[in-house]
Specification:
The complex is a heterodimer of chains A (250) and B (168). Chain A is built from seven helices and four strands. With 250 residues, chain A is mainly alpha-helical. In chain A, helix 2 runs antiparallel to helix 6. In chain B, 90% of the residues lie in helices and 0% in strands. The chains are: A mainly alpha (250), B mainly alpha (168). The interface between A and B is large, with 55 and 37 residues.
Amino acid sequence: MEESPLHPFELHNYIPITLGGLDISINKAVIMMWVVVGVITLLMVKASAARRLVPGKLQSLAEMLVDFIRGIIMDTMGKDGMKFFPLIATLFLFILFCNLLGLIPGTYTVTSQIIVTAVFAITVYALSLLLGLMFHGIKFIPAILIPPGTPWWLIPLMMPIEFVSQVARPVSLAVRLFANMTAGHTILGVLFGLAISGGLLIGWLPFAFTIAMNGLEVGIAFIQAYIFTVLTCVYLGDAFHLHGSEDHAH
Amino acid sequence: MPQFESHFFSSLIFWEVVSFAILFFVLYKFAFPGILGILEEREKKIKDSLDQAERHRSDAERKLKEYEAKLNAAAKEADGILAAAKERAQRLLEENEQRLTAEAERIKGDAARAIEQERRAAIQDIRTQTTELALMVAEKVVQRSLNDADHRRMADDALDALAKSPSR
């Protein structure tokens, strides 16, 4: 039987566990999450423990990542956004290392599971709504559904459109990451399948492509983590810098 | 697609939330404060160093200006001292010259006076001796022919002539 290119995404329960009727069995994706948490902890805590003014390699890498996230937050949310730094940095590091470690052959890409990206996306979106309501009260809801400066007679048209765009936020956030990770690994799977079935005579060509694709995938892994983080910052930033909130006040 | 097999969802959600929570806690507690702290510390250090460098530079510039001014003043002073010394030397030279001239003048005058005195004395001497000689001659002449009236008159004439003759 020909192996499906989607085969690498299949999960099998290694250790079946149930907790109060909830199935929390250990499978490959769960083990990868632990590995990711372990790798990030090792890197960041060790780098933080060094605390040298002239950093070593490890500290430089960790500082580069932290400074990068700080830059994103400063650009999209301003100084107020630094309150969310721990949350956003953890999110970025978790997604980045899920993406990157998943590229190592034999491992599993946690972010190629739609449910994993969906949980992050829905949590981020829910958090942005919650923050909006906390900062601006109930008028936050009409404010995000009616763009500032809309003429009164356009309101019935604008509200459904804005509603759809709001709903699209978590959906697109989740699907973008999941689809990119799935597509990349599927292409790698297909190319590698070709390399195997092509044999030595012609198989080197798709094999060379898998190597090139893997390089590209590293870039995509980073870019997708970056996009997810930037959009998170933008959504959270929207919550407390309500578009045109000053205009409404006058 | 295998990703849509919903019977894995519960375990994935559970472990995702647990892993994320643990990671968040660990990083929040042990990693981020340290790394953010060291980043801020370094930024501050760099800023301080730059400020300090700027301060040192302006200090150095100020000092340079000071030294240049001092150097100029010193050069001016040296010029002044040199000019004064030259002037003094010139004056001394002139004074010396005047003094020497006067001295020479005085010595010359003294010498001339002494010569004049000697000359006078010599003339006086000559005159005295001439008179004595004349008197002696006259005496001899007188002694030989006192009675001869002609000779007496001749002696008188000779004495007159001698007395009338100029002193030199």
